[in-house]
Amino acid sequence: MVRKSFHYFHPVLLIPVLLLLSVTVISSCGTDSDHYSPVTEKGIPETTEQKAFAIALHGGAGVISKDIDPETRDGYLNALDHALRIGYELLDAGGTSLDAVEAVVRYLEDDERFNAGKGAVFTSEERHELDASIMDGRDLNAGAVAGIRTVKNPITMARKIMEESRHVLLSGDGAENFASLMDLERVDNSYFNTERRREQLHRAQERASAGNSGTVGVAALDRHGNLAAGTSTGGMTNKMPGRIGDSPLIGAGTYADNNSCAVSATGHGEKFIRNAVAYQICAIMEYTGVSLQEAAEQVIFGKLDEGDGGIIAVDRYGRIAMVFSSPGMFRGAADSEGRFEVAIW
Ligand code: ASP
Prior knowledge:
The chain has nine helices and twelve strands. By secondary structure, it is α+β, with helices and mostly antiparallel strands. It has a single domain (about 55-345), classed as Glutamine Phosphoribosylpyrophosphate, subunit 1, domain 1, CATH 3.60.20. Strands 4-3-2-6-5-1-11-12 form an eight-stranded mixed β-sheet. It is globular. The chain starts with 13 loop residues before the first helix and ends with a strand. It binds aspartic acid (ASP). Aspartic acid (ASP) binds near residues 213, 236, 245 and 247.
């Protein structure tokens, strides 16, 4: 009779198996974050291919009707495609993730389709107050501005605060003064006006509600292994003057840490603040070793309510997650392995 070989197991064979198991357990329990080692839910190290660079962007999440006319839809897709290409080319040429984040966000701020820079939504008093933030995953340096009224590109202001001041977040008159000191391009508040946003405001006022969609954000990994993220927004339509959302708050709307990932969020800001969404995703990755996708799903589907919004994120290996619970999220993803895609629903 032929005995099937897998039924035969000599005890000596247990030695290498036990050794392997102990190495796995030690590496997944290690506390040294420099030696972060991703493990799956079952504690098995993931096979992760390192990508040279990667970038993900969003142009806001919300109720985006599938019935929009094809011309409008294509306009959005082309804008996302163009923005993604700017970031892709910069990273491909060896540029830094910070430069890519700033350049792509600036491009989207200048496009009035999006609720950031030109095209920002109106406050209940029919003015504009813009929020933005940027973070460097190398050293957790960060800069942010809240409620700025006259800076054409708030993301550049956020970067100036990060690099040229001792602070992380500036608001109000102090922020306006700092913008003058830094010689940033200024505009009259009416520069941000668009008819579309004015109509949106009037509709929201009739319903006594506040809406959102069109915030922009970018997360990127560069060829030097550094992560960065940035977010820029006009906030919520019909918001109270002085209201600050999640976008300029490090840990809520934006976070980047080379030990885990870079995240930019979009959606109902108050919910993202309460749940420290961007930081929480990075922390879940770092502390539990699950993948970026898994960490993002745990937060977006487990901590927030359906329809609250979503995130785009890139981890230290160049893996991208784009997770949202709203009907749509304008988004794009590209990496050094040839991925290049934009989508809405
Ligand atoms: N999160 C932004 C805010 O609450 C809005 C958005 O992402 O659409 O200000």
